[in-house]
Design a protein that fits this description.
The protein is an all-alpha fold and about 425 residues long. Helices cover about 70% and strands about 0% of the residues. The strands form two sheets. A two-stranded antiparallel ribbon has the order 1-4. Strands 2-3 form a two-stranded antiparallel sheet. Helix 2 runs antiparallel to helix 3 and helix 16 crosses helix 17.
Length: about 425
Protein backbone atom coordinates (compact mmCIF):
# COMPACT_ATOMS: atom_id res chain seq x y z
CA UNK A 1 0.00 0.00 0.00
CA UNK A 2 1.36 3.45 -0.92
CA UNK A 3 1.56 6.41 1.42
CA UNK A 4 -1.62 7.99 0.00
CA UNK A 5 -3.56 4.80 0.64
CA UNK A 6 -2.26 4.59 4.20
CA UNK A 7 -3.24 8.18 4.84
CA UNK A 8 -6.83 7.64 3.63
CA UNK A 9 -7.30 4.09 4.90
CA UNK A 10 -7.85 2.64 1.41
CA UNK A 11 -6.92 -0.97 0.67
CA UNK A 12 -4.59 -2.08 -2.10
CA UNK A 13 -6.17 -1.55 -5.51
CA UNK A 14 -8.85 0.77 -4.20
CA UNK A 15 -9.15 4.41 -5.13
CA UNK A 16 -8.52 6.59 -2.07
CA UNK A 17 -11.59 8.46 -0.90
CA UNK A 18 -11.40 12.26 -1.09
CA UNK A 19 -10.44 13.98 2.11
CA UNK A 20 -12.46 16.99 3.18
CA UNK A 21 -10.55 20.09 4.10
CA UNK A 22 -10.37 20.64 7.86
CA UNK A 23 -12.71 23.30 9.23
CA UNK A 24 -11.32 26.80 9.64
CA UNK A 25 -9.95 27.65 13.05
CA UNK A 26 -12.18 29.67 15.32
CA UNK A 27 -11.83 33.38 14.72
CA UNK A 28 -10.04 32.92 11.40
CA UNK A 29 -10.60 35.72 8.89
CA UNK A 30 -11.10 34.91 5.22
CA UNK A 31 -8.86 37.07 3.05
CA UNK A 32 -10.78 38.84 0.31
CA UNK A 33 -9.22 40.43 -2.73
CA UNK A 34 -9.57 44.18 -1.99
CA UNK A 35 -10.51 44.78 -5.61
CA UNK A 36 -13.72 42.83 -5.02
CA UNK A 37 -14.80 45.35 -2.39
CA UNK A 38 -15.25 47.90 -5.13
CA UNK A 39 -18.03 45.85 -6.67
CA UNK A 40 -19.62 44.80 -3.39
CA UNK A 41 -19.62 48.12 -1.51
CA UNK A 42 -20.32 50.63 -4.26
CA UNK A 43 -19.00 54.14 -3.59
CA UNK A 44 -17.67 53.11 -0.17
CA UNK A 45 -15.68 50.40 -1.90
CA UNK A 46 -14.02 52.94 -4.19
CA UNK A 47 -13.09 55.10 -1.21
CA UNK A 48 -11.58 52.16 0.68
CA UNK A 49 -9.71 51.05 -2.46
CA UNK A 50 -8.32 54.56 -2.94
CA UNK A 51 -7.17 54.69 0.69
CA UNK A 52 -5.57 51.26 0.35
CA UNK A 53 -3.58 52.41 -2.69
CA UNK A 54 -2.43 55.60 -0.95
CA UNK A 55 -1.30 53.65 2.13
CA UNK A 56 0.54 51.24 -0.14
CA UNK A 57 2.32 54.05 -1.96
CA UNK A 58 0.45 53.52 -5.24
CA UNK A 59 0.00 57.19 -6.13
CA UNK A 60 -0.22 56.68 -9.88
CA UNK A 61 -0.65 59.90 -11.86
CA UNK A 62 -2.22 61.81 -8.98
CA UNK A 63 0.83 64.00 -8.12
CA UNK A 64 1.52 65.06 -11.70
CA UNK A 65 -2.15 65.80 -12.45
CA UNK A 66 -2.43 67.92 -9.32
CA UNK A 67 0.86 69.61 -10.18
CA UNK A 68 -0.33 70.38 -13.72
CA UNK A 69 -3.56 71.92 -12.41
CA UNK A 70 -1.59 74.08 -9.97
CA UNK A 71 0.89 75.16 -12.68
CA UNK A 72 -1.89 76.14 -15.07
CA UNK A 73 -3.76 77.96 -12.29
CA UNK A 74 -0.69 79.98 -11.29
CA UNK A 75 0.25 81.00 -14.83
CA UNK A 76 -3.33 81.89 -15.72
CA UNK A 77 -3.53 84.13 -12.66
CA UNK A 78 -0.29 85.82 -13.75
CA UNK A 79 -1.25 86.15 -17.42
CA UNK A 80 -4.75 85.71 -18.78
CA UNK A 81 -3.34 84.66 -22.17
CA UNK A 82 -1.93 81.40 -20.83
CA UNK A 83 -5.10 79.32 -21.13
CA UNK A 84 -6.17 80.79 -24.45
CA UNK A 85 -6.82 78.37 -27.31
CA UNK A 86 -3.81 79.60 -29.27
CA UNK A 87 -1.32 79.16 -26.42
CA UNK A 88 -2.64 75.73 -25.43
CA UNK A 89 -2.50 74.58 -29.06
CA UNK A 90 1.07 75.84 -29.39
CA UNK A 91 2.04 74.00 -26.18
CA UNK A 92 0.57 70.74 -27.47
CA UNK A 93 2.52 70.99 -30.74
CA UNK A 94 5.77 72.07 -29.08
CA UNK A 95 5.69 69.13 -26.67
CA UNK A 96 5.57 66.43 -29.38
CA UNK A 97 9.29 66.36 -30.24
CA UNK A 98 10.46 66.00 -26.64
CA UNK A 99 7.48 63.76 -25.88
CA UNK A 100 8.42 61.28 -28.60
CA UNK A 101 11.93 61.00 -27.18
CA UNK A 102 10.46 60.58 -23.69
CA UNK A 103 8.37 57.62 -24.89
CA UNK A 104 11.56 55.78 -25.79
CA UNK A 105 13.08 56.77 -22.45
CA UNK A 106 10.11 55.17 -20.66
CA UNK A 107 11.02 51.79 -22.16
CA UNK A 108 14.62 52.14 -20.97
CA UNK A 109 13.61 53.31 -17.50
CA UNK A 110 11.32 50.31 -17.14
CA UNK A 111 14.49 48.21 -17.21
CA UNK A 112 15.99 50.40 -14.50
CA UNK A 113 18.56 51.75 -16.99
CA UNK A 114 19.23 55.10 -18.67
CA UNK A 115 20.01 56.26 -22.22
CA UNK A 116 22.03 59.46 -22.46
CA UNK A 117 22.40 59.35 -26.24
CA UNK A 118 18.82 60.13 -27.29
CA UNK A 119 19.44 63.86 -27.67
CA UNK A 120 22.35 63.34 -30.05
CA UNK A 121 20.46 60.61 -31.93
CA UNK A 122 17.56 63.00 -32.49
CA UNK A 123 19.98 65.53 -33.93
CA UNK A 124 21.46 62.91 -36.26
CA UNK A 125 17.96 62.06 -37.49
CA UNK A 126 17.22 65.65 -38.52
CA UNK A 127 20.65 65.98 -40.12
CA UNK A 128 20.22 62.78 -42.17
CA UNK A 129 16.89 63.94 -43.57
CA UNK A 130 18.24 67.39 -44.42
CA UNK A 131 21.41 66.13 -46.08
CA UNK A 132 19.68 63.41 -48.09
CA UNK A 133 16.58 65.33 -49.19
CA UNK A 134 17.99 68.85 -49.60
CA UNK A 135 21.67 68.38 -50.43
CA UNK A 136 21.47 65.14 -52.43
CA UNK A 137 17.91 65.34 -53.73
CA UNK A 138 16.73 62.03 -52.29
CA UNK A 139 12.98 61.51 -52.06
CA UNK A 140 11.91 62.96 -48.72
CA UNK A 141 9.80 59.93 -47.75
CA UNK A 142 12.82 57.71 -48.30
CA UNK A 143 15.03 60.12 -46.36
CA UNK A 144 12.62 60.03 -43.42
CA UNK A 145 12.56 56.21 -43.48
CA UNK A 146 16.38 56.06 -43.56
CA UNK A 147 16.59 58.49 -40.63
CA UNK A 148 14.18 56.45 -38.50
CA UNK A 149 15.87 53.15 -39.32
CA UNK A 150 19.23 54.74 -38.53
CA UNK A 151 17.93 55.58 -35.06
CA UNK A 152 16.80 51.99 -34.60
CA UNK A 153 20.22 50.65 -35.63
CA UNK A 154 22.04 53.13 -33.39
CA UNK A 155 19.91 52.12 -30.41
CA UNK A 156 20.48 48.44 -31.15
CA UNK A 157 24.26 49.04 -31.22
CA UNK A 158 24.07 50.64 -27.79
CA UNK A 159 21.92 47.77 -26.56
CA UNK A 160 24.39 45.21 -27.91
CA UNK A 161 27.33 46.69 -25.99
CA UNK A 162 25.18 46.85 -22.86
CA UNK A 163 23.38 43.51 -23.06
CA UNK A 164 25.88 41.28 -24.85
CA UNK A 165 29.27 42.77 -23.92
CA UNK A 166 28.19 43.79 -20.42
CA UNK A 167 29.28 47.44 -20.47
CA UNK A 168 27.21 49.75 -18.23
CA UNK A 169 24.37 51.44 -20.10
CA UNK A 170 25.37 54.80 -18.61
CA UNK A 171 28.89 54.56 -20.05
CA UNK A 172 27.79 53.16 -23.42
CA UNK A 173 25.16 55.82 -24.04
CA UNK A 174 27.42 58.60 -22.73
CA UNK A 175 29.95 57.56 -25.35
CA UNK A 176 27.09 57.49 -27.86
CA UNK A 177 26.11 61.03 -26.89
CA UNK A 178 29.60 62.27 -27.78
CA UNK A 179 30.07 60.13 -30.88
CA UNK A 180 26.72 60.86 -32.53
CA UNK A 181 26.97 64.54 -31.72
CA UNK A 182 30.27 64.65 -33.59
CA UNK A 183 28.79 62.54 -36.40
CA UNK A 184 25.95 65.05 -36.81
CA UNK A 185 28.40 67.95 -37.07
CA UNK A 186 30.42 66.02 -39.61
CA UNK A 187 27.53 65.29 -41.99
CA UNK A 188 26.10 68.82 -41.72
CA UNK A 189 29.35 70.19 -43.10
CA UNK A 190 30.91 73.63 -42.80
CA UNK A 191 27.69 75.63 -43.04
CA UNK A 192 26.22 73.82 -40.05
CA UNK A 193 22.62 74.63 -41.01
CA UNK A 194 20.43 73.18 -43.75
CA UNK A 195 16.98 74.66 -44.28
CA UNK A 196 14.18 72.20 -45.03
CA UNK A 197 11.57 72.55 -47.75
CA UNK A 198 8.71 74.56 -46.28
CA UNK A 199 6.23 72.46 -48.24
CA UNK A 200 7.96 69.18 -47.47
CA UNK A 201 6.81 66.27 -45.34
CA UNK A 202 8.99 67.01 -42.33
CA UNK A 203 7.99 70.67 -41.98
CA UNK A 204 4.32 69.76 -42.29
CA UNK A 205 4.63 67.45 -39.28
CA UNK A 206 4.20 70.46 -37.00
CA UNK A 207 2.74 73.05 -39.38
CA UNK A 208 -0.22 71.11 -40.75
CA UNK A 209 -3.64 71.42 -39.07
CA UNK A 210 -6.93 69.70 -39.87
CA UNK A 211 -8.97 72.88 -40.17
CA UNK A 212 -12.36 71.17 -40.53
CA UNK A 213 -14.05 71.18 -37.10
CA UNK A 214 -15.27 67.64 -37.80
CA UNK A 215 -11.70 66.34 -37.51
CA UNK A 216 -11.23 67.26 -33.84
CA UNK A 217 -14.74 66.24 -32.86
CA UNK A 218 -14.48 63.04 -34.88
CA UNK A 219 -11.24 62.07 -33.15
CA UNK A 220 -12.89 62.72 -29.78
CA UNK A 221 -15.81 60.46 -30.70
CA UNK A 222 -13.49 57.69 -31.90
CA UNK A 223 -11.41 57.91 -28.71
CA UNK A 224 -14.47 57.67 -26.47
CA UNK A 225 -16.10 54.82 -28.40
CA UNK A 226 -12.88 52.79 -28.62
CA UNK A 227 -12.21 53.28 -24.90
CA UNK A 228 -15.71 52.15 -23.94
CA UNK A 229 -15.71 49.11 -26.22
CA UNK A 230 -12.24 47.90 -25.23
CA UNK A 231 -12.96 48.36 -21.52
CA UNK A 232 -16.40 46.74 -21.76
CA UNK A 233 -15.17 43.73 -23.74
CA UNK A 234 -12.19 43.30 -21.42
CA UNK A 235 -14.59 43.25 -18.47
CA UNK A 236 -16.76 40.65 -20.18
CA UNK A 237 -13.71 38.48 -20.67
CA UNK A 238 -12.66 38.87 -17.02
CA UNK A 239 -16.16 38.03 -15.81
CA UNK A 240 -16.18 34.90 -17.96
CA UNK A 241 -12.90 33.83 -16.34
CA UNK A 242 -14.23 34.59 -12.86
CA UNK A 243 -11.62 37.23 -12.02
CA UNK A 244 -12.28 40.69 -10.53
CA UNK A 245 -13.66 43.23 -12.99
CA UNK A 246 -15.05 46.74 -12.94
CA UNK A 247 -18.81 47.25 -12.61
CA UNK A 248 -20.67 48.72 -15.58
CA UNK A 249 -21.41 51.99 -13.80
CA UNK A 250 -17.68 52.57 -13.30
CA UNK A 251 -17.00 51.97 -17.00
CA UNK A 252 -19.74 54.44 -17.89
CA UNK A 253 -18.34 57.01 -15.45
CA UNK A 254 -14.79 56.65 -16.81
CA UNK A 255 -16.10 56.94 -20.37
CA UNK A 256 -18.07 60.07 -19.47
CA UNK A 257 -15.00 61.70 -17.91
CA UNK A 258 -12.93 60.86 -21.00
CA UNK A 259 -15.69 62.29 -23.22
CA UNK A 260 -15.69 65.57 -21.28
CA UNK A 261 -11.90 65.85 -21.56
CA UNK A 262 -11.77 64.84 -25.23
CA UNK A 263 -14.49 67.24 -26.37
CA UNK A 264 -13.05 70.06 -24.26
CA UNK A 265 -9.71 69.61 -26.06
CA UNK A 266 -11.52 69.45 -29.41
CA UNK A 267 -13.30 72.73 -28.67
CA UNK A 268 -9.97 74.39 -27.81
CA UNK A 269 -8.36 73.23 -31.04
CA UNK A 270 -11.31 74.34 -33.16
CA UNK A 271 -11.13 77.82 -31.64
CA UNK A 272 -7.61 78.22 -33.07
CA UNK A 273 -6.28 76.57 -36.24
CA UNK A 274 -7.87 73.16 -35.87
CA UNK A 275 -6.52 69.73 -34.92
CA UNK A 276 -2.69 69.58 -35.22
CA UNK A 277 -1.28 66.66 -37.20
CA UNK A 278 1.62 66.42 -34.72
CA UNK A 279 -0.76 65.75 -31.82
CA UNK A 280 -2.63 63.07 -33.77
CA UNK A 281 0.63 61.23 -34.52
CA UNK A 282 1.80 61.55 -30.91
CA UNK A 283 -1.46 60.18 -29.50
CA UNK A 284 -1.37 57.29 -31.98
CA UNK A 285 2.16 56.42 -30.85
CA UNK A 286 1.09 56.51 -27.21
CA UNK A 287 -1.84 54.18 -27.86
CA UNK A 288 0.32 51.70 -29.77
CA UNK A 289 3.18 51.66 -27.25
CA UNK A 290 0.78 51.42 -24.30
CA UNK A 291 -0.85 48.41 -25.96
CA UNK A 292 2.55 46.81 -26.52
CA UNK A 293 3.58 47.25 -22.90
CA UNK A 294 0.31 46.28 -21.25
CA UNK A 295 -1.25 43.76 -23.63
CA UNK A 296 1.58 41.75 -25.21
CA UNK A 297 4.02 39.11 -24.03
CA UNK A 298 6.88 41.41 -24.99
CA UNK A 299 5.60 44.14 -22.69
CA UNK A 300 5.32 41.71 -19.79
CA UNK A 301 8.93 40.68 -20.39
CA UNK A 302 10.04 44.31 -20.20
CA UNK A 303 8.27 44.77 -16.86
CA UNK A 304 9.65 41.46 -15.62
CA UNK A 305 13.21 42.54 -16.39
CA UNK A 306 12.63 45.78 -14.54
CA UNK A 307 11.52 43.79 -11.51
CA UNK A 308 14.30 41.19 -11.43
CA UNK A 309 16.80 40.24 -14.13
CA UNK A 310 17.71 36.95 -12.49
CA UNK A 311 14.10 35.88 -11.98
CA UNK A 312 13.38 36.77 -15.62
CA UNK A 313 16.31 34.70 -16.82
CA UNK A 314 15.14 31.71 -14.78
CA UNK A 315 11.65 32.14 -16.23
CA UNK A 316 13.11 31.59 -19.71
CA UNK A 317 13.11 35.19 -20.92
CA UNK A 318 15.83 36.05 -23.42
CA UNK A 319 17.28 38.90 -21.37
CA UNK A 320 19.86 39.92 -23.96
CA UNK A 321 17.35 40.17 -26.80
CA UNK A 322 14.82 42.16 -24.76
CA UNK A 323 17.48 44.59 -23.58
CA UNK A 324 18.79 45.18 -27.11
CA UNK A 325 15.26 45.67 -28.42
CA UNK A 326 14.44 48.22 -25.71
CA UNK A 327 17.44 50.37 -26.63
CA UNK A 328 16.51 49.99 -30.30
CA UNK A 329 13.04 51.31 -29.45
CA UNK A 330 14.60 54.24 -27.59
CA UNK A 331 16.75 55.03 -30.63
CA UNK A 332 13.73 54.82 -32.92
CA UNK A 333 11.69 57.27 -30.88
CA UNK A 334 14.71 59.57 -30.53
CA UNK A 335 14.86 59.71 -34.33
CA UNK A 336 11.13 60.36 -34.64
CA UNK A 337 11.38 63.09 -32.00
CA UNK A 338 14.30 64.60 -33.89
CA UNK A 339 12.15 64.88 -37.01
CA UNK A 340 9.50 66.83 -35.10
CA UNK A 341 12.12 69.11 -33.58
CA UNK A 342 13.61 69.77 -37.02
CA UNK A 343 10.09 70.38 -38.31
CA UNK A 344 9.43 73.01 -35.64
CA UNK A 345 12.43 75.12 -36.71
CA UNK A 346 12.23 74.06 -40.39
CA UNK A 347 15.92 73.20 -40.46
CA UNK A 348 18.71 70.97 -39.21
CA UNK A 349 21.53 72.74 -37.44
CA UNK A 350 24.50 72.11 -35.18
CA UNK A 351 22.60 72.88 -32.00
CA UNK A 352 20.02 70.14 -32.64
CA UNK A 353 19.88 67.59 -29.85
CA UNK A 354 21.99 69.76 -27.57
CA UNK A 355 21.10 71.98 -24.62
CA UNK A 356 18.42 70.82 -22.23
CA UNK A 357 16.70 68.43 -24.67
CA UNK A 358 18.16 65.26 -23.13
CA UNK A 359 17.37 66.33 -19.59
CA UNK A 360 13.86 67.44 -20.55
CA UNK A 361 13.14 64.08 -22.19
CA UNK A 362 14.32 62.13 -19.15
CA UNK A 363 12.57 64.56 -16.81
CA UNK A 364 9.32 64.20 -18.76
CA UNK A 365 9.31 60.42 -18.32
CA UNK A 366 10.13 60.65 -14.61
CA UNK A 367 7.84 63.59 -13.81
CA UNK A 368 5.01 61.77 -15.59
CA UNK A 369 5.29 58.85 -13.17
CA UNK A 370 7.82 56.37 -14.58
CA UNK A 371 10.03 55.04 -11.79
CA UNK A 372 13.79 55.49 -11.98
CA UNK A 373 14.13 52.15 -10.20
CA UNK A 374 12.52 50.19 -13.03
CA UNK A 375 9.43 48.03 -13.31
CA UNK A 376 6.79 50.76 -13.02
CA UNK A 377 5.52 53.19 -15.61
CA UNK A 378 3.46 53.70 -18.76
CA UNK A 379 4.12 55.52 -21.99
CA UNK A 380 1.26 57.89 -21.14
CA UNK A 381 3.58 59.17 -18.41
CA UNK A 382 5.59 60.82 -21.19
CA UNK A 383 2.53 62.87 -22.19
CA UNK A 384 1.86 64.09 -18.66
CA UNK A 385 5.51 64.83 -17.94
CA UNK A 386 6.27 66.72 -21.13
CA UNK A 387 3.02 68.69 -20.74
CA UNK A 388 4.25 69.86 -17.33
CA UNK A 389 7.68 70.85 -18.67
CA UNK A 390 6.45 72.70 -21.77
CA UNK A 391 3.72 74.42 -19.75
CA UNK A 392 6.37 75.74 -17.36
CA UNK A 393 8.51 76.94 -20.27
CA UNK A 394 5.63 78.70 -22.04
CA UNK A 395 4.26 80.16 -18.82
CA UNK A 396 7.62 81.62 -17.81
CA UNK A 397 8.21 82.86 -21.36
CA UNK A 398 4.94 84.80 -21.18
CA UNK A 399 6.28 86.42 -18.01
CA UNK A 400 9.58 87.24 -19.71
CA UNK A 401 11.59 85.01 -17.38
CA UNK A 402 15.05 83.98 -18.60
CA UNK A 403 15.70 80.43 -19.75
CA UNK A 404 18.18 79.94 -16.89
CA UNK A 405 15.36 80.38 -14.38
CA UNK A 406 13.19 78.02 -16.45
CA UNK A 407 15.84 75.33 -16.11
CA UNK A 408 16.08 75.93 -12.37
CA UNK A 409 12.33 75.54 -11.90
CA UNK A 410 12.20 72.44 -14.12
CA UNK A 411 15.05 70.95 -12.10
CA UNK A 412 13.21 71.65 -8.86
CA UNK A 413 10.08 69.93 -10.20
CA UNK A 414 12.19 66.94 -11.28
CA UNK A 415 13.82 66.70 -7.86
CA UNK A 416 10.42 66.79 -6.16
CA UNK A 417 9.23 64.01 -8.46
CA UNK A 418 12.26 61.84 -7.76
CA UNK A 419 11.80 62.33 -4.03
CA UNK A 420 8.15 61.31 -4.32
CA UNK A 421 9.21 58.26 -6.32
CA UNK A 422 11.78 57.27 -3.67
CA UNK A 423 9.32 57.74 -0.80
CA UNK A 424 6.65 55.85 -2.71
CA UNK A 425 9.01 52.94 -3.29
CA UNK A 426 9.88 52.78 0.41
CA UNK A 427 6.19 52.87 1.30
CA UNK A 428 5.47 50.03 -1.10
CA UNK A 429 8.28 47.95 0.40
CA UNK A 430 6.88 48.54 3.86
CA UNK A 431 3.45 47.48 2.62
CA UNK A 432 4.99 44.41 0.95
CA UNK A 433 4.09 45.55 -2.57
CA UNK A 434 7.55 46.19 -4.06
Amino acid sequence: MDEAGKATGAKDGEVPAPVDAPPAAAGAVTVVDPRLLVREQGFAGYVSEFRRKIRGGDLGAIPVVIGLIVIWGIFQSLNSNFLTAGNLSDISVAMVGTGMIAVGIVFVLLLGEIDLSVGSVSGVSGAIVAVLSVTHGVNEWLAVLIAIVSGTVIGAIHGFFFARVGAPAFAVTLAGLLFWSGFMLQILGDNGTINLDSDGIVVKLTSYYFTDVAAAYGLAVVAVVVFFLTTFLENRRRQALGVPSRPLNEIVLRTALLAVLAFAVAIVYNQYKGLPLAVVIFLAMLVVTDFVLRRTAYGRKVFALGGSVEASRRAGINVTLVRISVFAIAGTFASIGGLFIASKIASANQSAGAGELLMNAIAAAVIGGTSLFGGRGRTWNALLGVLVIISIQYGLALQGVASAVQNMITGAVLLATVLIDAVTRKTQKTAGRA
